[in-house]
Amino acid sequence: MAEIRLDNIRKSFGAFEVIKGVSMDIRRGEFMVFVGPSGCGKSTLLRLISGLEDITSGTLSFDDKVVNQRAPSKRGIAMVFQSYALYPHMTVFDNMAFGMKLSGRTKDECRQRVEQAAGMLQLSPYLDRLPRQLSGGQRQRVAIGRAIVRDPKVFLFDEPLSNLDAALRVATRLEIAKLHRSMHNTTMIYVTHDQVEAMTLADRICVLRDGVVEQVGTPLELYETPNSLFVAGFIGSPK
Ligand code: ADP
Ligand code: MG
Fold first, then answer.
1. How far apart, in whole angstroms, are the C-alpha atoms of residue 207 and residue 42?
2. pLDDT band at 53 (very low <50, low <70, confident <90, very high)
3. How many angstroms separate the alpha carbon of residue 1 from the centre of ligand 2?
4. What is this structure's pTM?
5. What is the C-alpha separation between 101 and 113, in angstroms, rounded?
6. Within a 10 A sphere around the Cβ of 93, how many other Cβ atoms?
């Protein structure tokens, strides 16, 4: 069964239509990657799923319930931004605990969850540091940890590796894959314009072009049977 269903979703900013009738399903536990050129609407689509932007028309449902009007905080979703979205004046611990404190958990619960996430992400030695005292890769892991402690059903990643250097990109990519394997039934929706990331991380890939879905399929399906030159150019070899 689909956990998340997009049914003819459209989004306009003023007279400018950015998402032009997107329909697709995302299954529970799936690693779904959205790819497509800059400006095609990837970030907008994530923001619609998370509720940070309102849908202009169409239906978004989670577990067969329409959530078009549901507040972002009630959607069971955590979004991982690029690492520069950390609070510079807060320690790693406080950066990770911040969202949880707002949710009304006890101090002990917060500490326990932060310590567990830090352990998963090899951040335990750095909990008292400030973001500027960390490497780029460590900072990105803090950004991921901040999402993990909230125990979301769905993670949304918007190009989380794009400001890391090549070696760190590979290491952090492996970390994200490991995280998905270790968090059973956690759905990940991941936006990138990097085909290697898409091919290595995805259970399925959705290729977007100019606000429209070109093709959805497993990496192998898209590689072996792209249904357009556009998909082929993005993913695999031309037919
Ligand atoms: P991507 O993430 O694929 O690069 P975006 O979703 O960020 O693309 O943007 C898609 C298009 O929508 C772009 O042309 C962008 O300029 C436009 N856009 C995005 N957000 C807004 C906004 N808040 N107001 C007006 N236009 C926007
Ligand atoms: Mg974007």
1. 10
2. very high
3. 28
4. 0.91
5. 11
6. 20
Q: Is the ipTM of this complex over 0.85?
A: yes
pLDDT tens column, 203-238: 999 999 999 999 999 999 999 999 999 999 888 654
Amino acid at 112: Q
Ligand 1 atom at shortest distance from the alpha carbon of 41: 6
Q: In ligand 1, which atom is closest to the CA atom of 158?
A: 2
Task: Copy the structure tokens of residue 147.
Answer: 């999402």
Q: Is residue 211 within 6 Å of ligand 1 at its C-beta?
A: no
> What is the three-state SS of the chain?
CEEEEEEEEEEEECCEEEEEEEEEEEECCCEEEEECCCCCCHHHHHHHHHCCCCCCEEEEEECCEECCCCCHHHCCEEEECCHHHCCCCCCHHHHHHHHHHHCCCCHHHHHHHHHHHHHHCCCHHHCCCCHHHCCHHHHHHHHHHHHHCCCCCEEEEECCCCCCCHHHHHHHHHHHHHHHHHCCCCEEEEECCCHHHHHHHCCEEEEEECCEEEEEECHHHHHHCCCCHHHHHHCCCCC
Six-digit token string for 158: 């918007």
Q: How far apart are CA 110 and CA 116, in angstroms?
A: 10
Tokens of 222: 């898209």
Give, in order, the Cα–Cα distances in Å from 168 to each of 14, 130, 146.
39, 20, 19
Q: Is the CB of 22 under 6 A from ligand 1?
A: no
